[in-house]
Specification:
Shape: globular
Structural class: alpha/beta
Radius of gyration: 23 Å
Oligomer: single chain
Helix content: 25-40%
Distance between the termini: 24 Å
Amino acid sequence: MKLLCLSNGHGEDAIALRILQELQQHPHPPELAVFPLVGEGQAFAQLENARIIGPVQRMPSGGFIYMDGREFLRDVKGGLLQLTIAQFKAIRAWVRSQQQSGNQDGVILACGDIVPLLFAWLGGAPYAFVGTAKSEYYLRDENGPLARKSRVFGWWGCPRSVYLPWERWLMTRSRCRAVFARDALTAETLQKLGIPAYNLGNPMMDGLEPENPAGFYGPDAELRERSRSLVITLLPGSRAPEAYANWLLIIEAVAGILSLFAERKLLFFGAISPELNLEALRPSLEFFGWRQEGETRTQRREGSILRPPLSSGQEMQKESPNLLLPLTFVQRNATMILTQQSFNDCLYEADLAIAMAGTATEQFVGLGKPAIAIPGNGPQFTPAFAEAQSRLLGPSLILVKHPAEVAGAVQSLLRDPDRLQLIAENGLRRMGEPGAAARIAECLIQRFGGECTNSKLPGID
């Protein structure tokens, strides 16, 4: 089998990469080719023997044109239409080359939204679709339809599915062999509409195991739990300059937490993308009264984030000039650590998060933990994006209007153990269990060579 993977965005590239890596582990792996339709697809450099088949280009919007019409116009001026035409031609050429060489086993995997799905259909080969962008939770939950602010939905009533009729049409074509929905609710809805949909989990939750698991059990576990710090992870997003603006709002919210929890030890983890510069975050911290306390790598406070591998620090900085070893700041009863390394630890060791991110927020919630979101100015994390994300994640995401409201939201959460239990169950239900990429890879092998036989896979008529 020869497989071409289409994806359209940084997050979609990461999900596709996980699936392709699992495919390469199969006893009879397919021959892979990739085509990132948005951005340059740097994630795929981790794949061996998988070439990019056509032109790639970073657009001014960074892929967020659906958030703002002005971003779309900037992309058009930057060559979006010419790039799209060239990409379509490259996909058709790849399919023709498979057919002309006598290979009838060329297939396409589309990962993202309607753009790669449409290109997969237009390509003319059998295809499968990993739907990363849409979930029925945007419209309804297990109890029924949600209240909607959209006038369009108000006129039409509750749609049959979050996927629009033309999207569902593409999924019901005979060449569409499988649709991998991001959650059970979406898969069930699509199956009722005659679409070969599978609920195999969300690859976003793969590979999140902590790098340095903390030891929580022992004879003094209860005592340590009562005396430990309240741990809050800060997720400002990964795209500059938006992430720097988000950071200002988050640090303002942190100031309110310091005032309200003046008698409790606090530990903040700033999970900062390697694409950002830690030094750019320092002025806002100093403005709000934080002072730096030495180098983190020499300290042994609490949490595995404070124990990075010392021998590899110089190597990491050579590979990424922006990457700095963790920085520690202190103020009164609180410690703040900014790290670009231990993302998984930041998620696992935290009690809750203040989040202005996309994928990272969903992953945090998927671990069964609450996140508090403050709408920003975009272009990604706008009020509209935050409201949609709150639908997607349900009670696990607490949406506030202003940074000053965050401290009260934290206090309310900590006083309500029943609510925290509901949030834990909700996160797992909406984001799924780890191992989705391996399950999807196995199903792809079997769907394009026969029916899925894994007992965990739902039967498709």
